[in-house]
Amino acid sequence: MESIREATLEDLRGVAALFDAYRQFYELPADAALSNAYIEARLRSHDSVILVAVNGRGQLQGFCQLYPGRCSLAAAPIYVLYDLYVDPAARGHGTGRALMKAATERGRRDGKARLELQTARTNATARALYESLGWKRDDTFLTYTLPL
Question: How many folded domains does the chain comprise?
Answer without folding.
Answer: 1
